[in-house]
Structure formats: structure tokens, C-alpha cells
Write a structure and sequence with these properties.
Number of strands: 12
Protein name: N-acylglucosamine 2-epimerase
Order of helices and strands: HEHHEEHHEHHEEEEHHEEHHEEH
Family: Belongs to the N-acylglucosamine 2-epimerase family.
Organism: Bacteroides ovatus (strain ATCC 8483 / DSM 1896 / JCM 5824 / BCRC 10623 / CCUG 4943 / NCTC 11153)
Shape: globular
GO molecular function: N-acylglucosamine 2-epimerase activity
Oligomer: single chain
Radius of gyration: 20 Å
Keywords: Isomerase
Helix content: 55-70%
């Protein structure tokens, strides 16, 4: 790459401009519920509301997004106000009497569905901690820590959370292991407690010892309780986007620890392996699923291009370059960025499509549903801008 400085500056400008003039305005205009509080995400291509059902995941995700952007992109009071409105909705309506959170709500806050896992709690916790930093209100950091400890209690107490499968074949999943790293890290920015770094250490150890399978050069999504390989469709599944997200969580933690060598090498290994599994050499982009024995994947969306694996790859490759200065990661960033920005942004109505066919054509044009909304894309833009600024700062020091 001839001029790294110009390249990084161009992307820093793109991420910031996209946040200020595209992504945040779209969701503030079409998603924000100014009557009940909180955020709608089931919107059509042009922002028209298709379903007023509220994803509890996204109440936390949106409050985090607004606060994170406020802290790192622009001190925009509308963003802070939107975060507060959404947190108020969470606290008023989204918790059941047992301390667990719901998964879906009506527009006015009546519960529709509750699921067995604790991702709603995860996103509410990072929203509270980030809002605490943005607003200066320490009470929200305390709430975030309390919620995190409650999550740990739910996870560690047998019988409180229903298992996904029966005891016939005990197993554990990658998703909760990896998300706890990020949740603990985000809360730790707002408040200190020994349980946070301890949880990160435990999750990292589990990833390396159990989920990483060198015989396949892969991080697997589902394994036995002690890392046993399960030779089934589910047990052989690789989710490249998920693994790449894990990789940048690890690189971030390494950086926060002054460049911890072991954690950095683990993150880079996962990134390299997962890129090899996920990058579509024929059409470009990161696909959804692979089988570690190269058998046919059972998931019907296995070769589609969803929005979020691309955004995680953008962050991870920037982090890898920042941490190593190896130009191969900048070239990977260029590959994924050019492909993503060619295919996902909707140049007519704003925001991004979420679901593309393997060849990059649009599978369906809606901008949101219960699983896609203002999180992965704006988090990438905020984090991408921050990483570009750090890289530029290091270049200037030379």
C-alpha cells in the first residue's frame, strides 16, 4: 500500500461522516419512539414502521450505540437524550420479577416473550455503563455492575437457566463465552471490580482450551463441556463472523493490558484462521457458516452475506494492523471495506441493507427487524474511527 496515512485518514473521515449524517439520523428519525420511549427496529427500506414489536436486545444496543457515539464521535445532545429515553424504557418495562429480562415487548412495554439466555441483560449492562461515562452519572455504572453480577449468578447456578439441549449430549456454546469478555470490558471502563477482569480471564482461558481446535484450524461454535469435539452438523459449525468478533475482543484486551503477548497471539490466530474459513474467494465478503470437515453446512443461510460479519471484520483487521503494523492486515481491511461499502449501503434511502445473497445482490431490503438495527454498523463506525485515529497518532509520532 503506497500511502498508508492517506488511506487511514480517508476511512476515519468516512466512518465519522457516516455516523453523523447517515446512520444516527436514520434511527433517530425512524426508530426512536417519542411516545413510549425506546427504539423500534422493524423498519422497511425507507424507514416505514413494519412492526411495533420491540426487541429488548436492541433497547440496550441502541442506548449503548448512542452513548458510545456521544463519547467518541460527537457530543450530540440528541444522542444522549435518546440513550436516556431508551434506558428509562428498559428499567421501567424490560425486567421480569425474577430479575431476568424479556426478549420482546409491545410498543408500550408489555412483555411478549422471554428466552432462556441472557443477551438482553448483556446489552442492557453495556448501555448502562456507557451512559454512565457519557452522562457522568455514576449510578448507572453501579447498576451495570449489579446486572453483570446477576448475570454471573444466573449462569453459575444450576437450574436457573434452561439448557438448550437435554443431558443426553451436554454441550456449551461460544456466544456467551465471548460476549462476557466484551461486556466485562465495557463495564470496566466505567467502574472497577475484580469480578470483571476475572471473568475476562476465565473466558479467554475457555476459548483457548476448549473452543479452539487446531486440528481444523478453527474456533468452533459448539463443543462438549470440556472442549470435546462433537462430530455432528452443529458440532462441526464454524461461524467466521462470530469468531472474527471474538478476535477483536481479544486484541482490545491485549491492548488494554499493555500489549499482552499471549492474548494478542490468540486473537491474531483466531482472526487468521476465521478469515481463511470465511472470506469468499469467488464473490468477496464474509459468509455465514462453514463445516470444519468441509461437509455441507446445514444452515440455509450458510453462504449469504449478512451485514454484521463484515463490520466485525473491518474492526478486527484495523485492530490487527494497529497491534502488529503488518501490512497484510491493512490489505485485508481494504478487501473487506471495499466489498462492504460497494454492496451494503443504500444510496437512495440511507442506512445499510442487512441481507445479501452470496453474489452481493440484495436478498431483502428492510433496514431492520428484531435482530438487525442500530448496533453492529454504528459500533463499527465509532470503533473504526477511533482505531484510525490511533493509527494516525502513531504514524505522526514517527
Amino acid at each position: 500500500m503506497k500511502n498508508i496515512t492517506d488511506y487511514i485518514q480517508q476511512w476515519a473521515n468516512t466512518y465519522k461522516d457516516d455516523m453523523q449524517n447517515n446512520i444516527m439520523p436514520f434511527w433517530i428519525k425512524y426508530g426512536l419512539d417519542r411516545v413510549n420511549g425506546g427504539i423500534y427496529t422493524c423498519v422497511d427500506r425507507d424507514g416505514a414502521l413494519m412492526d411495533s414489536t420491540k426487541s429488548v436486545w436492541f433497547q440496550g444496543r441502541f442506548a449503548f450505540t448512542c452513548s458510545y457515539a456521544y463519547n467518541h464521535i460527537e457530543k450530540n445532545p440528541a444522542w444522549l437524550q435518546a440513550a436516556k429515553s431508551t434506558l428509562d424504557f428498559i428499567e421501567k418495562y424490560c425486567f421480569d420479577s425474577d430479575g431476568r429480562m424479556y426478549f420482546e415487548m409491545t410498543a408500550d412495554g408489555r412483555p411478549l416473550r422471554k428466552r432462556r439466555y441472557i443477551f438482553s441483560e448483556s446489552f442492557a449492562a453495556i448501555a448502562m455503563s456507557e451512559y454512565s461515562i457519557a452522562s457522568g452519572d455514576k449510578a448507572y455504572a453501579v447498576k451495570a455492575l449489579e446486572l453483570f453480577k446477576r448475570m454471573q449468578y444466573f449462569l453459575q447456578t444450576p437450574g436457573l437457566l434452561a439448557p438448550k439441549y437435554t443431558d443426553t449430549l451436554p454441550m456449551k456454546g461460544h456466544s456467551i463465552t465471548m460476549i462476557l469478555i466484551n461486556v466485562a470490558s465495557r463495564i470496566r471502563e466505567a467502574i472497577q471490580d475484580e469480578c470483571l477482569t476475572r471473568q475476562i480471564d476465565e473466558s479467554i482461558s475457555c476459548l483457548e482450551k476448549d473452543f479452539l481446535h487446531p486440528e481444523f484450524k478453527a474456533l468452533l461454535e459448539t463443543i462438549g463441556p470440556n472442549g470435546e469435539f462433537i462430530d455432528s452438523n452443529m458440532g462441526r459449525t464454524i461461524n467466521p463472523g462470530h469468531c472474527i468478533e471474538t478476535a477483536w475482543f481479544l486484541l482490545e484486551e491485549s491492548k488494554l493490558r499493555g500489549g499482552d503477548k499471549n492474548i494478542k497471539e490468540l486473537g491474531l490466530k483466531i482472526l487468521d484462521w476465521s478469515w481463511e474459513w470465511g472470506w469468499d474467494k469467488e464473490f468477496g465478503g464474509i459468509i455465514n457458516f462453514k463445516d470444519c470437515r468441509n461437509l455441507p453446512s446445514q444452515d440455509y443461510a450458510q453462504d449469504m452475506k449478512f451485514w454484521w460479519p463484515q463490520t466485525e471484520a473491518i474492526i478486527a483487521t484495523l485492530y490487527a494492523y494497529l497491534m502488529t503494523k503488518e501490512e497484510k492486515y491493512l490489505k485485508m481491511h481494504q478487501q473487506i471495506s471495499e466489498w462492504t461499502y460497494t454492496h451494503f449501503p443504500d444510496k437512495e434511502y440511507g442506512e445499510w441493507y442487512g441481507y445479501l445473497h452470496r453474489d452481493g445482490t440484495v436478498a431483502q431490503p428492510a433496514k431492520g427487524n428484531l435482530f438487525k438495527g442500530p448496533f453492529h454498523i454504528p459500533r463499527m463506525m465509532t470503533k473504526g474511527y477511533m482505531l484510525c485515529e490511533e493509527i494516525m497518532s502513531e504514524i505522526k509520532k514517527k
